[in-house]
Design a protein that fits this description.
The complex is a heterodimer of chains A (542) and B (74). Chain A has 14 helices and 27 strands. Chain A is α+β, with helices and mostly antiparallel strands and 542 residues long. Chain A folds into three domains: 11-90 and 126-203 and 298-368, 3-Layer(bba) Sandwich (FAD/NAD(P)-binding domain), CATH 3.50.50; 204-295, Alpha-Beta Plaits (2-Layer Sandwich); 442-538, Glutaredoxin (3-Layer(aba) Sandwich), CATH 3.40.30. Chain B has 74 residues and is an all-alpha fold. Chain B has one domain. Chain B contains three helices and no strands. The longest helix of chain B has 25 residues, at 49-73. Classes of the chains: A alpha+beta (542), B mainly alpha (74). At the A-B interface, α10 and α11 of A face α2 of B. The complex binds flavin-adenine dinucleotide. Chain A: Its cofactor is FAD. Chain A: Keywords: FAD, Flavoprotein. Chain A: InterPro entries: FAD-bd, FAD/NAD-bd_sf, RIFMO-like. Chain A: This is FAD-dependent oxidoreductase.
Chain lengths: 542, 74
């Protein structure tokens, strides 16, 4: 792809023949779930399903990871999810932790922001980590899980929907074979061939301006902050970004105009002077160079019969805001518990529809946010450019101007207006309302050990969980619901009072959390019947 | 609170005049830049997205009315 591809694939995987390939054509192997695509989304979803006790076949048409530079910024929410999948420590240890960003206009700083200005969270606002490391760690984790059957160089080439299953045709180096599955999860990326196979459209917007993305290796003393420039002296009239990655690699984005010739612009000898102007020296090596035209698109429906789309196959965003992989991971965590329940028969298949409802709302939000950022960077008309100019100049003097400057709004979990949520019946002055993601806070165990609420949730098995406060009218939790008690006898302590504060809790208050850590319902005075009703709603049972 | 379209200035002529005078001596380009900044400052001062949307609709109606008049004349 790029001429300066000095970065070798980190990991190469061998194709291995599977006994499924030896079955006679008329009786292919049957599997409950086949995931197509071993990118960050497919890999994470496979681990999640396997941890829930499902057997998963995961197919990928390539035999390696580590192609090019793609995602680098992984959100707190993604790290909390990866914690549950047993891979977050490794990601954070390797990654570059950050929470501060600065926006410059011309020579001067307009403002700085902190994405996590408070303490008491297990995970940071963001880490930067090359996508190939994230994928490599996920693949390593998969090797601990015998229920995942990961098959490299298995390319899906045809798909046929039947009443009770889907038939796939899979191409391998040794020829084609067929598989049947109850559900196919298409995590096959933005150019999804499964999307074409189900005949779905992928509508949206392509941005005209091009962006040059280079990963350069150098030792530099810049802080681990996200630096974004409008109209910098070294790249007049356009925007630029600088962000640190592990291994002394720096991500540099330079906006180019719509007429730039990709072949010419990508040549290292042409990129080098641009970056030297930015850095003030040319003591750096290229890891990777590419030129992108960004797009914001989504499928109308994420579910087509028994084929369910997740990640970039379902929705694509421009990267300003780091909403691509992060939102795909949210898809995975949203889908996994629902699919698990449907396969077990504890919830009806109609529960899956809520995946489409919730995650297509999220896709709209992510597309809206990243479209606004990209439009702000590359105004579409003279008048848009004029308004932007006014914002940038007002930002020097006014707070409201600073807040209108849009150099990327970084990924946060979206809140769902969802059929699975039960509305508040009592008054709450704060805390996550039904449809919002749980918040982390420090807790301590009886033995005095320090931990976090997200740890307690994970250790409980990431199932439906009743988070209750104080000794109040403790109710028996319904069958199958896990318990987290804060305060009271035998509960976790809330040493800094932050759990109670972040959840606006009083003694007796309780939150019903879904297996993906979203709030299903909350109660000032929980009753067994009230909790049971919220539970069956959240499980799609009524 | 809906968009107020009753007259709010004690002396409306002063307000109109102040805006007109602010544009005096500016080129077309500068005037347009000036208006862009002014709109943003006033919009923030209002600070209510519903009022802003109503104002946008009211202003936009001039464009539509203008187009219709043009079409009728043709
Ligand atoms: C320059 C750039 C910067 C970015 N920065 C960020 C960021 O900072 N943060 C962020 O969250 N996101 C970022 N993104 C987006 C992120 O890279 C993607 O959202 C993410 O890779 C999507 O993951 P996925 O698993 O859905 O798909 P992919 O990673 O595209 O994986 C799809 C997989 O499916 C396989 N496949 C395809 N077709 C078939 C088939 N027919 N049969 C079998 N296998 C198949 C492919 O080989 C591939 O392995 C960035 C993207 C770009 C381009």
């Amino acid at each position: 792809m790029a001429d300066a591809n000095t970065h070798q694939a980190k990991i190469q995987f061998g194709y291995r023949r599977h006994p499924d390939q030896d079955r006679p054509g008329q009786s292919p192997a049957e599997h409950p779930v086949v995931i197509v695509g071993a990118g960050p989304v497919g890999l994470s979803l496979a681990i999640d399903l396997a941890q829930r006790g499902q057997r998963v076949v995961l197919l990928d048409d390539a035999d390696r990871i580590g192609e090019g530079s793609r995602a680098i910024c992984f959100s707190k929410r993604s790290l909390e999810y990866w914690d549950r999948l047993g891979v977050a420590d490794r990601m954070v240890d390797k990654g570059v932790v950050w929470s501060v960003g600065r926006i410059f206009h011309g020579e001067s700083q307009l403002y700085q922001f902190n994405l996590l200005p408070e303490d008491g969270h297990k995970r940071p606002a963001f880490i930067n980590l090359q996508q190939y490391y994230a994928e490599a760690y996920l693949v390593d984790r998969i090797s601990d899980l015998p229920d995942i059957d990961l098959r490299w160089r298995n390319k899906v080439t045809a798909l046929e929907q039947r009443n009770d299953s889907v038939a796939l045709t899979i191409e391998t180096p040794e020829g084609a074979y067929r598989l049947h599955a109850q559900y196919i999860i298409a995590c096959d990326g933005a150019r999804s061939s499964l999307r074409q196979m189900v005949g779905a459209e992928f509508g949206g917007q392509v941005f005209e301006d091009q962006f040059l993305i280079a990963d350069v290796k150098m030792t530099a003393e810049f802080p681990t902050e996200r630096w974004f420039w409008f109209d910098p002296p070294f790249h007049a009239g356009r925007s630029a970004l600088l962000h640190k990655q592990p291994d002394d690699v720096w991500r540099i984005d330079l906006q180019l105009n719509r007429y730039a010739d990709p072949v010419v612009e990508k040549k290292p000898e042409n990129v080098r002077p641009r970056i030297a102007r930015m850095l003030g020296h040319d003591k750096f090596e290229f890891e990777w160079i590419s030129l992108y035209k960004f797009q914001c698109r989504r499928m109308d429906r994420f579910i087509h019969g028994r084929v369910i789309f997740a990640g970039d196959s379902a929705h694509q965003v421009s990267p300003f805001g780091a909403r691509g992989a992060n939102s795909g991971l949210e898809d995975a965590e949203n889908l996994s518990w629902k699919l698990d329940r449907v396969l077990r028969g504890t919830s009806p298949a109609s529960l899956l529809e809520s995946y489409h409802v919730e995650r297509s709302l999220a896709a709209d939000e992510n597309i809206r946010e990243s479209t606004r950022s990209t439009d702000f960077m590359a105004p579409n008309s003279h008048q848009e450019a004029r308004l932007r100019k006014a914002v940038l100049s007002l930002a020097k003097e006014t707070e409201f101007g600073k807040r209108m400057v849009n150099g990327g709004r970084l990924s946060v979990p979206c809140s769902y207006d969802s059929p699975l949520s039960s509305r508040d019946a009592e008054a709450w002055g704060g805390g996550p309302s039904p449809g919002c993601s749980m918040l982390d806070a420090p807790v301590s165990t009886r033995g005095g050990g320090q931990a976090y609420l997200t740890d307690a949730f994970r250790k409980g098995g990431t199932d439906f969980t009743l988070l209750s406060f104080g000794n109040g009218a403790a109710i028996d939790t319904p069958d199958g619901v896990k318990d987290i008690r804060i305060g009271g006898e035998g509960g976790l302590a809330d040493p800094q009072g932050l759990v109670a504060k972040r959840y606006d809790a009083e003694p007796g208050s309780a939150y019903l959390l879904r297996p993906d850590g979203y709030v299903a319902a909350r109660f000032r005075h929980p009753t067994r019947a009230g909790v049971a009703a919220a539970l069956s709603r959240a499980a799609g049972l009524n | 609170m809906p968009l107020s379209t009753s007259s709010n200035f004690a002396r409306p002529d002063d307000a109109f005049r102040a805006i007109v005078e602010a544009h005096r001596g500016l080129t077309e380009e500068q005037s347009a830049d000036f208006d862009a900044a002014l709109v943003l400052i006033l919009a923030n001062h209002i600070g209510d997205i519903d009022v802003l949307r109503e104002a946008l609709v009211l202003a936009k109606r001039r464009m539509i009315d203008g187009q219709q008049q043009q079409q009728q004349q043709q």
